[in-house]
Amino acid sequence: MAQNSSNSTTTTSTTIDPRSGFCKSNSVFYSKRKPIALSSNHSQDVTTFISSRAHNGKTAFIDAATGRQLSFSDVWSAVDSVATSLSDMGIRKGHVILLLSPNSIFFPVICLSVMSLGAIITTTNPLNTNREIAKQIADSKPVLAFTIPQLVPKLDGSNLPIVLIAHGHPHPPNFTSNSKIVTTLETMMNREPSQSRVKDRVTQDDTATLLYSSGTTGASKGVVSSHRNLMAMVQTIVSRFRLEAGEQTFICTVPMFHIYGLAAFAAGLLASGSTVVVLSKFEMDEMLSAIGKYRATYLPLVPPILVALVNHADGIKRKYDLGTLNSVLSGGAPLSKEVIEGFADKYPGVAILQGYGLTETTGIGASTDSAEESQRYGTAGMLSPSMEAKIVDPESGEALAVNQTGELWLRGPTVMKGYFSNEEATASTLDSDGWLRTGDLCYIDDDGFIFVVDRLKELIKYKGYQVPPAELEALLLTHPEISDAAVIPFPDKDVGQYPMAYVVRKTGSNVSENAIMDFIAKLVAPYKRIRRVAFVASIPKNPSGKILRKDLIKLATSKL
Protein backbone atom coordinates (compact mmCIF):
# COMPACT_ATOMS: atom_id res chain seq x y z
CA MET A 1 0.00 0.00 0.00
CA ALA A 2 0.96 3.66 0.02
CA GLN A 3 3.19 3.43 3.07
CA ASN A 4 5.51 0.92 1.40
CA SER A 5 5.87 2.93 -1.77
CA SER A 6 9.40 4.05 -0.89
CA ASN A 7 10.56 0.43 -1.14
CA SER A 8 9.81 0.37 -4.84
CA THR A 9 12.25 3.23 -5.38
CA THR A 10 15.22 1.03 -4.52
CA THR A 11 14.28 -1.71 -6.95
CA THR A 12 13.84 0.67 -9.87
CA SER A 13 16.42 3.34 -9.10
CA THR A 14 18.72 2.20 -11.92
CA THR A 15 16.00 2.91 -14.50
CA ILE A 16 14.78 6.26 -13.09
CA ASP A 17 15.61 9.24 -15.29
CA PRO A 18 17.35 11.64 -12.87
CA ARG A 19 16.04 14.65 -14.79
CA SER A 20 12.30 13.89 -14.93
CA GLY A 21 12.05 11.24 -12.20
CA PHE A 22 10.32 8.92 -14.69
CA CYS A 23 10.89 5.17 -14.55
CA LYS A 24 10.27 3.46 -17.90
CA SER A 25 9.93 -0.04 -16.46
CA ASN A 26 6.79 0.77 -14.41
CA SER A 27 5.72 4.20 -15.81
CA VAL A 28 5.95 5.80 -12.35
CA PHE A 29 7.31 9.31 -11.70
CA TYR A 30 9.36 9.45 -8.46
CA SER A 31 9.94 12.59 -6.42
CA LYS A 32 13.31 14.23 -6.99
CA ARG A 33 13.24 15.72 -3.53
CA LYS A 34 14.99 14.15 -0.53
CA PRO A 35 12.60 11.58 1.06
CA ILE A 36 11.08 12.39 4.44
CA ALA A 37 11.99 10.13 7.36
CA LEU A 38 8.73 8.65 8.61
CA SER A 39 8.31 8.00 12.33
CA SER A 40 9.07 4.37 13.18
CA ASN A 41 7.06 4.51 16.43
CA HIS A 42 3.79 2.90 15.33
CA SER A 43 2.08 3.56 18.68
CA GLN A 44 2.25 7.34 18.42
CA ASP A 45 -0.44 9.95 17.87
CA VAL A 46 0.19 13.14 15.89
CA THR A 47 -0.13 15.37 18.98
CA THR A 48 2.65 13.49 20.82
CA PHE A 49 4.72 13.48 17.63
CA ILE A 50 4.47 17.28 17.26
CA SER A 51 5.01 18.05 20.95
CA SER A 52 8.14 15.87 21.10
CA ARG A 53 9.94 17.70 18.27
CA ALA A 54 12.82 19.83 19.54
CA HIS A 55 12.89 23.55 18.67
CA ASN A 56 13.89 26.88 20.19
CA GLY A 57 10.65 28.75 19.58
CA LYS A 58 9.00 30.87 22.28
CA THR A 59 5.74 32.37 20.99
CA ALA A 60 3.46 29.92 19.17
CA PHE A 61 0.36 31.98 18.36
CA ILE A 62 -0.59 35.66 18.39
CA ASP A 63 -4.14 36.94 17.94
CA ALA A 64 -3.73 39.81 15.46
CA ALA A 65 -6.85 41.63 16.70
CA THR A 66 -6.21 41.54 20.46
CA GLY A 67 -2.45 40.91 20.66
CA ARG A 68 -3.08 37.95 23.00
CA GLN A 69 -0.21 35.44 22.80
CA LEU A 70 0.19 31.74 23.53
CA SER A 71 3.72 30.52 24.18
CA PHE A 72 4.63 26.95 23.25
CA SER A 73 4.38 25.93 26.91
CA ASP A 74 0.93 27.64 27.10
CA VAL A 75 -0.22 25.59 24.10
CA TRP A 76 0.93 22.23 25.47
CA SER A 77 -0.42 22.81 28.97
CA ALA A 78 -3.75 23.90 27.42
CA VAL A 79 -3.80 20.75 25.26
CA ASP A 80 -3.22 18.60 28.38
CA SER A 81 -5.97 20.39 30.31
CA VAL A 82 -8.53 20.24 27.49
CA ALA A 83 -7.73 16.57 26.85
CA THR A 84 -8.26 15.81 30.55
CA SER A 85 -11.62 17.61 30.49
CA LEU A 86 -12.71 15.77 27.32
CA SER A 87 -11.70 12.45 28.85
CA ASP A 88 -13.73 13.24 31.98
CA MET A 89 -16.71 14.01 29.72
CA GLY A 90 -16.45 10.49 28.33
CA ILE A 91 -14.76 11.33 25.02
CA ARG A 92 -12.91 8.25 23.81
CA LYS A 93 -10.97 6.95 20.82
CA GLY A 94 -13.09 6.99 17.66
CA HIS A 95 -15.55 9.66 18.86
CA VAL A 96 -16.07 12.50 16.37
CA ILE A 97 -15.85 16.11 17.63
CA LEU A 98 -17.15 19.00 15.51
CA LEU A 99 -15.27 22.31 15.41
CA LEU A 100 -17.26 25.24 14.01
CA SER A 101 -15.14 28.35 14.36
CA PRO A 102 -13.37 31.10 12.45
CA ASN A 103 -9.58 31.16 12.72
CA SER A 104 -8.45 31.47 16.32
CA ILE A 105 -5.37 30.88 18.44
CA PHE A 106 -7.48 28.20 20.19
CA PHE A 107 -8.26 26.28 17.00
CA PRO A 108 -5.00 24.25 17.12
CA VAL A 109 -5.39 23.67 20.88
CA ILE A 110 -8.79 22.02 20.31
CA CYS A 111 -7.58 19.93 17.34
CA LEU A 112 -4.49 18.66 19.18
CA SER A 113 -6.45 17.88 22.36
CA VAL A 114 -9.05 15.85 20.47
CA MET A 115 -6.48 13.93 18.42
CA SER A 116 -4.34 13.16 21.49
CA LEU A 117 -7.24 11.03 22.80
CA GLY A 118 -7.60 9.14 19.53
CA ALA A 119 -10.86 11.04 18.94
CA ILE A 120 -11.51 12.49 15.48
CA ILE A 121 -11.78 16.19 14.62
CA THR A 122 -14.21 17.31 11.91
CA THR A 123 -14.23 20.98 10.91
CA THR A 124 -16.81 23.02 9.03
CA ASN A 125 -16.90 26.41 7.33
CA PRO A 126 -18.47 29.12 9.54
CA LEU A 127 -20.08 30.52 6.37
CA ASN A 128 -21.95 27.26 5.73
CA THR A 129 -25.72 27.40 6.04
CA ASN A 130 -27.57 25.64 8.87
CA ARG A 131 -28.72 23.06 6.31
CA GLU A 132 -25.16 22.34 5.10
CA ILE A 133 -23.90 22.01 8.69
CA ALA A 134 -26.83 19.74 9.60
CA LYS A 135 -25.96 17.53 6.63
CA GLN A 136 -22.34 17.20 7.81
CA ILE A 137 -23.53 16.42 11.35
CA ALA A 138 -25.89 13.74 10.02
CA ASP A 139 -23.02 12.19 8.04
CA SER A 140 -20.17 12.40 10.59
CA LYS A 141 -22.28 11.86 13.77
CA PRO A 142 -20.24 13.97 16.22
CA VAL A 143 -20.83 13.57 19.96
CA LEU A 144 -19.75 17.10 20.93
CA ALA A 145 -19.25 20.48 19.25
CA PHE A 146 -16.93 23.43 19.90
CA THR A 147 -18.10 26.80 18.60
CA ILE A 148 -18.13 30.54 19.34
CA PRO A 149 -21.27 32.21 20.83
CA GLN A 150 -22.15 33.95 17.55
CA LEU A 151 -22.32 30.61 15.68
CA VAL A 152 -24.34 28.63 18.25
CA PRO A 153 -27.61 29.26 16.34
CA LYS A 154 -26.14 27.30 13.40
CA LEU A 155 -26.22 24.21 15.64
CA ASP A 156 -29.79 24.71 16.85
CA GLY A 157 -31.78 21.53 16.41
CA SER A 158 -28.69 19.30 16.42
CA ASN A 159 -29.06 18.38 20.13
CA LEU A 160 -25.27 18.36 20.36
CA PRO A 161 -23.66 19.31 23.67
CA ILE A 162 -21.64 22.47 23.00
CA VAL A 163 -18.38 23.83 24.41
CA LEU A 164 -18.24 27.61 23.94
CA ILE A 165 -14.99 29.10 22.69
CA ALA A 166 -15.49 32.31 24.62
CA HIS A 167 -13.30 34.55 26.72
CA GLY A 168 -14.76 36.97 29.17
CA HIS A 169 -18.56 36.87 29.09
CA PRO A 170 -19.64 33.59 27.46
CA HIS A 171 -22.99 34.91 26.23
CA PRO A 172 -23.05 38.04 24.06
CA PRO A 173 -26.00 40.45 24.32
CA ASN A 174 -29.23 39.15 22.70
CA PHE A 175 -27.88 35.60 22.97
CA THR A 176 -30.79 33.22 22.42
CA SER A 177 -30.43 29.55 21.66
CA ASN A 178 -32.10 26.27 22.46
CA SER A 179 -28.77 24.47 22.25
CA LYS A 180 -27.15 22.67 25.18
CA ILE A 181 -24.10 24.60 26.44
CA VAL A 182 -22.08 22.31 28.72
CA THR A 183 -18.98 24.41 29.47
CA THR A 184 -16.50 26.90 28.01
CA LEU A 185 -13.08 26.28 26.53
CA GLU A 186 -11.65 28.71 29.09
CA THR A 187 -12.95 26.53 31.94
CA MET A 188 -11.40 23.46 30.32
CA MET A 189 -8.06 25.20 29.81
CA ASN A 190 -7.95 26.24 33.49
CA ARG A 191 -8.39 22.65 34.56
CA GLU A 192 -5.46 20.89 36.26
CA PRO A 193 -4.22 18.18 33.81
CA SER A 194 -4.56 14.64 35.12
CA GLN A 195 -1.93 12.01 34.45
CA SER A 196 -4.36 9.28 35.51
CA ARG A 197 -6.96 9.95 32.82
CA VAL A 198 -8.17 7.08 30.63
CA LYS A 199 -5.75 6.66 27.73
CA ASP A 200 -6.72 4.51 24.78
CA ARG A 201 -3.86 3.12 22.70
CA VAL A 202 -3.60 5.28 19.57
CA THR A 203 -1.60 4.10 16.55
CA GLN A 204 -0.45 5.83 13.39
CA ASP A 205 -3.14 3.96 11.43
CA ASP A 206 -6.00 5.38 13.50
CA THR A 207 -8.19 8.15 12.11
CA ALA A 208 -7.24 11.69 13.21
CA THR A 209 -9.29 14.04 11.03
CA LEU A 210 -12.49 13.96 9.03
CA LEU A 211 -12.38 16.96 6.69
CA TYR A 212 -15.05 17.52 4.07
CA SER A 213 -13.71 18.12 0.57
CA SER A 214 -15.00 21.27 -1.08
CA GLY A 215 -17.30 19.34 -3.38
CA THR A 216 -16.48 21.47 -6.42
CA THR A 217 -17.25 18.48 -8.66
CA GLY A 218 -20.12 16.88 -6.77
CA ALA A 219 -21.44 16.21 -3.29
CA SER A 220 -19.09 17.02 -0.41
CA LYS A 221 -17.46 13.89 1.05
CA GLY A 222 -15.73 13.23 4.37
CA VAL A 223 -12.00 12.59 3.87
CA VAL A 224 -10.57 10.18 6.46
CA SER A 225 -6.93 10.99 7.33
CA SER A 226 -4.79 8.98 9.73
CA HIS A 227 -2.26 10.10 12.33
CA ARG A 228 0.43 8.85 9.92
CA ASN A 229 -0.98 11.06 7.14
CA LEU A 230 -0.73 14.13 9.38
CA MET A 231 2.73 13.24 10.68
CA ALA A 232 4.03 12.85 7.12
CA MET A 233 2.40 16.19 6.24
CA VAL A 234 4.14 17.90 9.18
CA GLN A 235 7.53 16.48 8.16
CA THR A 236 7.01 17.56 4.55
CA ILE A 237 6.14 21.15 5.55
CA VAL A 238 9.04 21.48 8.00
CA SER A 239 11.55 20.19 5.43
CA ARG A 240 10.05 22.30 2.62
CA PHE A 241 10.55 25.59 4.42
CA ARG A 242 13.78 24.45 6.12
CA LEU A 243 12.15 25.65 9.31
CA GLU A 244 14.68 24.00 11.57
CA ALA A 245 17.18 26.64 10.45
CA GLY A 246 15.59 29.47 12.42
CA GLU A 247 12.41 30.97 13.76
CA GLN A 248 9.96 32.43 11.24
CA THR A 249 6.73 34.37 11.60
CA PHE A 250 3.73 33.36 9.47
CA ILE A 251 0.55 35.36 8.95
CA CYS A 252 -2.50 33.07 8.99
CA THR A 253 -5.38 34.35 6.89
CA VAL A 254 -6.19 31.10 5.08
CA PRO A 255 -9.02 29.20 6.80
CA MET A 256 -7.96 26.70 9.48
CA PHE A 257 -11.05 24.58 8.84
CA HIS A 258 -9.61 23.87 5.36
CA ILE A 259 -6.69 21.48 4.80
CA TYR A 260 -4.47 24.41 3.65
CA GLY A 261 -4.84 26.23 6.96
CA LEU A 262 -4.99 23.15 9.17
CA ALA A 263 -1.88 21.64 7.57
CA ALA A 264 0.27 24.70 7.93
CA PHE A 265 -0.90 26.12 11.22
CA ALA A 266 -2.50 23.56 13.46
CA ALA A 267 0.42 21.22 12.93
CA GLY A 268 3.28 22.04 10.58
CA LEU A 269 4.53 25.21 12.19
CA LEU A 270 4.02 24.08 15.77
CA ALA A 271 6.61 21.41 15.07
CA SER A 272 9.28 23.91 14.06
CA GLY A 273 9.14 26.68 16.64
CA SER A 274 7.71 29.27 14.25
CA THR A 275 5.23 31.96 15.33
CA VAL A 276 1.79 32.13 13.73
CA VAL A 277 -0.10 35.44 13.74
CA VAL A 278 -3.79 34.53 13.45
CA LEU A 279 -6.43 36.67 11.72
CA SER A 280 -10.00 35.53 12.41
CA LYS A 281 -10.97 36.32 8.83
CA PHE A 282 -9.31 37.72 5.73
CA GLU A 283 -9.26 41.50 5.68
CA MET A 284 -6.63 43.10 3.42
CA ASP A 285 -5.83 46.08 5.65
CA GLU A 286 -5.56 43.94 8.80
CA MET A 287 -3.34 41.41 7.01
CA LEU A 288 -0.95 44.05 5.66
CA SER A 289 -0.81 45.90 9.00
CA ALA A 290 -0.01 42.64 10.80
CA ILE A 291 2.99 41.97 8.52
CA GLY A 292 4.68 45.18 9.68
CA LYS A 293 3.51 45.01 13.29
CA TYR A 294 4.70 41.42 13.88
CA ARG A 295 7.63 41.49 11.40
CA ALA A 296 6.25 38.55 9.44
CA THR A 297 8.48 36.58 7.08
CA TYR A 298 5.95 34.24 5.40
CA LEU A 299 2.52 35.06 3.99
CA PRO A 300 0.33 32.13 2.85
CA LEU A 301 -2.52 33.21 0.56
CA VAL A 302 -4.71 32.25 -2.37
CA PRO A 303 -4.28 33.58 -5.95
CA PRO A 304 -6.97 36.33 -5.85
CA ILE A 305 -5.18 38.00 -2.89
CA LEU A 306 -1.85 37.78 -4.70
CA VAL A 307 -3.40 39.42 -7.78
CA ALA A 308 -4.72 42.25 -5.54
CA LEU A 309 -1.21 42.75 -4.08
CA VAL A 310 0.13 43.22 -7.62
CA ASN A 311 -2.70 45.48 -8.82
CA HIS A 312 -2.49 47.84 -5.81
CA ALA A 313 1.25 47.55 -5.13
CA ASP A 314 2.09 51.27 -5.22
CA GLY A 315 -0.54 52.25 -2.63
CA ILE A 316 0.26 49.23 -0.46
CA LYS A 317 3.99 49.95 -0.36
CA ARG A 318 3.35 53.60 0.55
CA LYS A 319 1.04 52.69 3.44
CA TYR A 320 2.50 49.45 4.89
CA ASP A 321 5.89 48.17 5.98
CA LEU A 322 6.45 44.83 4.26
CA GLY A 323 10.23 44.91 4.67
CA THR A 324 10.52 41.68 6.68
CA LEU A 325 8.52 39.57 4.22
CA ASN A 326 10.67 37.06 2.34
CA SER A 327 8.12 34.61 0.87
CA VAL A 328 4.49 34.38 -0.15
CA LEU A 329 2.97 30.90 -0.36
CA SER A 330 0.23 30.47 -2.95
CA GLY A 331 -2.08 27.48 -3.24
CA GLY A 332 -5.44 26.62 -4.74
CA ALA A 333 -4.75 27.35 -8.41
CA PRO A 334 -1.64 27.90 -10.59
CA LEU A 335 -0.43 31.48 -11.06
CA SER A 336 -0.05 32.96 -14.52
CA LYS A 337 3.20 34.27 -15.98
CA GLU A 338 1.81 37.83 -15.83
CA VAL A 339 1.00 37.59 -12.11
CA ILE A 340 4.38 36.03 -11.18
CA GLU A 341 6.34 38.59 -13.22
CA GLY A 342 4.17 41.45 -11.95
CA PHE A 343 4.75 40.38 -8.34
CA ALA A 344 8.51 39.98 -8.87
CA ASP A 345 8.62 43.48 -10.35
CA LYS A 346 6.61 45.12 -7.55
CA TYR A 347 8.08 43.13 -4.62
CA PRO A 348 11.61 42.24 -5.76
CA GLY A 349 12.83 40.81 -2.44
CA VAL A 350 9.91 38.40 -1.95
CA ALA A 351 9.89 34.87 -3.39
CA ILE A 352 6.66 33.22 -4.58
CA LEU A 353 6.35 29.57 -3.53
CA GLN A 354 3.47 27.61 -5.02
CA GLY A 355 1.85 24.41 -3.82
CA TYR A 356 -0.55 21.78 -5.09
CA GLY A 357 -2.42 19.40 -2.83
CA LEU A 358 -5.84 17.96 -2.12
CA THR A 359 -7.78 17.32 1.06
CA GLU A 360 -7.38 13.66 -0.01
CA THR A 361 -3.56 14.01 0.12
CA THR A 362 -3.52 15.95 3.43
CA GLY A 363 -2.64 19.10 1.47
CA ILE A 364 0.57 17.60 0.05
CA GLY A 365 1.32 16.80 -3.61
CA ALA A 366 3.70 19.12 -5.40
CA SER A 367 5.39 22.46 -4.78
CA THR A 368 7.85 25.03 -6.02
CA ASP A 369 10.38 25.60 -3.26
CA SER A 370 12.34 28.55 -4.67
CA ALA A 371 11.77 31.68 -6.76
CA GLU A 372 13.64 29.96 -9.62
CA GLU A 373 11.27 26.97 -9.58
CA SER A 374 8.24 29.29 -9.59
CA GLN A 375 9.56 30.93 -12.76
CA ARG A 376 8.61 27.72 -14.56
CA TYR A 377 5.36 29.50 -15.40
CA GLY A 378 2.10 27.65 -14.93
CA THR A 379 3.60 24.79 -12.97
CA ALA A 380 2.20 23.29 -9.77
CA GLY A 381 5.80 22.38 -8.89
CA MET A 382 7.74 19.16 -8.47
CA LEU A 383 6.45 16.11 -6.58
CA SER A 384 6.66 16.47 -2.79
CA PRO A 385 9.15 14.25 -0.91
CA SER A 386 8.22 10.53 -0.81
CA MET A 387 5.38 11.12 -3.30
CA GLU A 388 4.98 9.08 -6.49
CA ALA A 389 2.86 9.92 -9.53
CA LYS A 390 1.43 8.35 -12.64
CA ILE A 391 -0.12 10.11 -15.61
CA VAL A 392 -2.97 7.89 -16.81
CA ASP A 393 -4.96 8.07 -20.04
CA PRO A 394 -8.58 8.52 -18.84
CA GLU A 395 -9.96 6.53 -21.78
CA SER A 396 -7.59 3.54 -22.01
CA GLY A 397 -6.20 3.45 -18.45
CA GLU A 398 -2.69 3.31 -19.89
CA ALA A 399 0.14 4.94 -17.89
CA LEU A 400 1.77 7.68 -19.99
CA ALA A 401 5.31 9.09 -20.20
CA VAL A 402 6.92 12.54 -19.96
CA ASN A 403 5.06 15.46 -21.61
CA GLN A 404 1.90 13.41 -22.19
CA THR A 405 -1.41 14.64 -20.74
CA GLY A 406 -3.65 12.41 -18.65
CA GLU A 407 -5.15 12.12 -15.17
CA LEU A 408 -2.67 12.60 -12.32
CA TRP A 409 -2.56 9.67 -9.88
CA LEU A 410 -0.66 10.10 -6.61
CA ARG A 411 0.68 7.64 -4.02
CA GLY A 412 2.54 8.38 -0.81
CA PRO A 413 2.39 8.61 2.97
CA THR A 414 -0.06 11.54 3.03
CA VAL A 415 -2.76 9.86 0.88
CA MET A 416 -6.04 9.46 2.81
CA LYS A 417 -7.48 6.20 4.15
CA GLY A 418 -10.67 6.76 2.13
CA TYR A 419 -14.02 8.56 2.21
CA PHE A 420 -16.09 8.28 5.37
CA SER A 421 -18.89 5.68 5.15
CA ASN A 422 -18.72 5.81 1.36
CA GLU A 423 -17.22 2.62 -0.07
CA GLU A 424 -18.36 3.42 -3.60
CA ALA A 425 -16.62 6.82 -3.69
CA THR A 426 -13.51 5.33 -2.06
CA ALA A 427 -13.32 2.50 -4.61
CA SER A 428 -13.64 4.92 -7.53
CA THR A 429 -10.89 7.20 -6.14
CA LEU A 430 -8.36 4.87 -4.44
CA ASP A 431 -7.15 1.64 -6.04
CA SER A 432 -5.89 -1.47 -4.24
CA ASP A 433 -2.25 -0.41 -4.69
CA GLY A 434 -2.79 2.91 -2.88
CA TRP A 435 -3.01 5.12 -6.00
CA LEU A 436 -5.30 8.14 -5.64
CA ARG A 437 -7.04 9.42 -8.77
CA THR A 438 -6.88 13.20 -8.39
CA GLY A 439 -9.39 14.09 -11.11
CA ASP A 440 -6.85 16.61 -12.42
CA LEU A 441 -5.67 16.50 -16.02
CA CYS A 442 -1.90 17.03 -15.95
CA TYR A 443 1.43 16.40 -17.62
CA ILE A 444 4.94 16.18 -16.17
CA ASP A 445 7.72 17.80 -18.20
CA ASP A 446 11.33 16.73 -18.87
CA ASP A 447 12.50 18.31 -15.60
CA GLY A 448 9.85 16.71 -13.38
CA PHE A 449 7.54 19.76 -13.13
CA ILE A 450 3.79 19.07 -12.97
CA PHE A 451 1.41 21.20 -15.02
CA VAL A 452 -2.32 21.09 -14.25
CA VAL A 453 -4.22 21.41 -17.52
CA ASP A 454 -7.71 21.13 -16.04
CA ARG A 455 -10.14 19.25 -13.87
CA LEU A 456 -11.01 16.02 -15.65
CA LYS A 457 -14.65 16.28 -14.69
CA GLU A 458 -14.88 19.90 -15.80
CA LEU A 459 -13.82 19.34 -19.41
CA ILE A 460 -16.36 20.75 -21.87
CA LYS A 461 -17.38 18.21 -24.52
CA TYR A 462 -18.09 20.09 -27.78
CA LYS A 463 -19.06 17.71 -30.62
CA GLY A 464 -16.91 15.08 -28.89
CA TYR A 465 -13.90 17.41 -28.60
CA GLN A 466 -12.57 18.08 -25.12
CA VAL A 467 -12.24 21.78 -24.24
CA PRO A 468 -10.39 22.67 -20.99
CA PRO A 469 -12.04 25.71 -19.32
CA ALA A 470 -8.74 26.73 -17.62
CA GLU A 471 -7.11 27.29 -21.02
CA LEU A 472 -9.86 29.71 -22.11
CA GLU A 473 -9.83 31.44 -18.70
CA ALA A 474 -6.09 32.05 -18.99
CA LEU A 475 -6.62 33.65 -22.41
CA LEU A 476 -9.53 35.80 -21.20
CA LEU A 477 -7.34 37.16 -18.39
CA THR A 478 -4.86 38.48 -20.98
CA HIS A 479 -7.56 40.81 -22.36
CA PRO A 480 -6.77 44.38 -21.21
CA GLU A 481 -10.38 45.08 -20.21
CA ILE A 482 -11.08 41.88 -18.23
CA SER A 483 -10.22 41.60 -14.53
CA ASP A 484 -11.55 38.06 -13.88
CA ALA A 485 -13.27 35.28 -15.80
CA ALA A 486 -14.65 31.76 -15.57
CA VAL A 487 -15.65 29.35 -18.32
CA ILE A 488 -18.35 26.67 -17.99
CA PRO A 489 -20.02 24.08 -20.21
CA PHE A 490 -23.40 25.28 -21.53
CA PRO A 491 -25.75 22.48 -22.64
CA ASP A 492 -26.80 22.42 -26.29
CA LYS A 493 -28.85 19.74 -28.04
CA ASP A 494 -26.87 20.02 -31.30
CA VAL A 495 -23.25 20.04 -30.08
CA GLY A 496 -23.56 18.59 -26.55
CA GLN A 497 -21.96 21.49 -24.72
CA TYR A 498 -20.27 24.71 -25.72
CA PRO A 499 -17.99 27.08 -23.75
CA MET A 500 -19.72 29.97 -22.00
CA ALA A 501 -17.75 32.71 -20.25
CA TYR A 502 -18.62 34.70 -17.14
CA VAL A 503 -16.60 37.90 -17.25
CA VAL A 504 -15.81 40.66 -14.74
CA ARG A 505 -15.02 43.87 -16.64
CA LYS A 506 -12.30 46.21 -15.42
CA THR A 507 -13.56 49.48 -13.95
CA GLY A 508 -14.69 51.84 -16.71
CA SER A 509 -14.75 49.14 -19.40
CA ASN A 510 -17.75 48.54 -21.64
CA VAL A 511 -16.23 45.69 -23.63
CA SER A 512 -19.03 43.78 -25.39
CA GLU A 513 -19.97 40.12 -25.63
CA ASN A 514 -19.08 40.03 -29.35
CA ALA A 515 -15.70 41.71 -28.80
CA ILE A 516 -14.77 39.04 -26.23
CA MET A 517 -15.92 36.17 -28.46
CA ASP A 518 -13.94 37.62 -31.42
CA PHE A 519 -10.86 38.04 -29.20
CA ILE A 520 -10.89 34.34 -28.23
CA ALA A 521 -11.81 33.15 -31.73
CA LYS A 522 -8.52 34.53 -33.02
CA LEU A 523 -6.56 32.52 -30.43
CA VAL A 524 -8.11 29.05 -30.41
CA ALA A 525 -9.29 26.23 -32.66
CA PRO A 526 -12.91 26.60 -33.84
CA TYR A 527 -14.25 23.97 -31.43
CA LYS A 528 -12.82 25.89 -28.46
CA ARG A 529 -14.51 29.19 -29.28
CA ILE A 530 -16.62 30.88 -26.61
CA ARG A 531 -20.20 31.10 -27.86
CA ARG A 532 -21.88 32.94 -25.01
CA VAL A 533 -20.75 35.64 -22.55
CA ALA A 534 -22.40 36.98 -19.39
CA PHE A 535 -21.08 39.85 -17.27
CA VAL A 536 -20.95 39.55 -13.47
CA ALA A 537 -19.63 41.63 -10.56
CA SER A 538 -17.43 38.79 -9.25
CA ILE A 539 -16.57 35.14 -9.90
CA PRO A 540 -17.65 32.78 -7.08
CA LYS A 541 -14.68 30.93 -5.56
CA ASN A 542 -14.12 28.63 -2.59
CA PRO A 543 -11.76 29.59 0.29
CA SER A 544 -8.75 28.14 -1.53
CA GLY A 545 -9.36 30.22 -4.67
CA LYS A 546 -10.92 27.55 -6.92
CA ILE A 547 -13.73 28.71 -9.21
CA LEU A 548 -17.10 27.32 -8.11
CA ARG A 549 -18.16 26.28 -11.60
CA LYS A 550 -21.17 24.34 -10.33
CA ASP A 551 -22.64 27.64 -9.00
CA LEU A 552 -22.15 29.31 -12.37
CA ILE A 553 -23.56 26.29 -14.24
CA LYS A 554 -26.64 26.48 -12.01
CA LEU A 555 -26.94 30.22 -12.71
CA ALA A 556 -26.57 29.75 -16.47
CA THR A 557 -28.99 26.83 -16.77
CA SER A 558 -31.64 28.29 -14.41
CA LYS A 559 -32.76 30.54 -17.28
CA LEU A 560 -33.32 27.64 -19.70
From TrEMBL:
What cellular component GO annotations does this protein have? peroxisome
Q: Describe the location of the AMP-binding enzyme C-terminal domain by residue ranges.
A: 471-546
- Gene Ontology terms for molecular function: (E)-caffeate-CoA ligase activity; ATP binding; trans-feruloyl-CoA synthase activity
Give GO terms for biological process. Answer: phenylpropanoid metabolic process
Q: Where are the transmembrane segments?
A: 96-121, 257-279
- Keyword RNA-binding listed? The answer is no
Full protein name: 4CL2
Copy the pathway line from the protein's UniProt record: Phytoalexin biosynthesis; 3,4',5-trihydroxystilbene biosynthesis; 3,4',5-trihydroxystilbene from trans-4-coumarate: step 1/2
Q: Which UniProt keywords apply?
A: ATP-binding, Ligase, Membrane, Nucleotide-binding, Phenylpropanoid metabolism, Transmembrane, Transmembrane helix
The family note in this entry says: Belongs to the ATP-dependent AMP-binding enzyme family.
Domain AMP-dependent synthetase/ligase, first and last residues per copy: 53-420
Gene3D superfamilies on file: 3.30.300.30, N-terminal domain of ligase-like
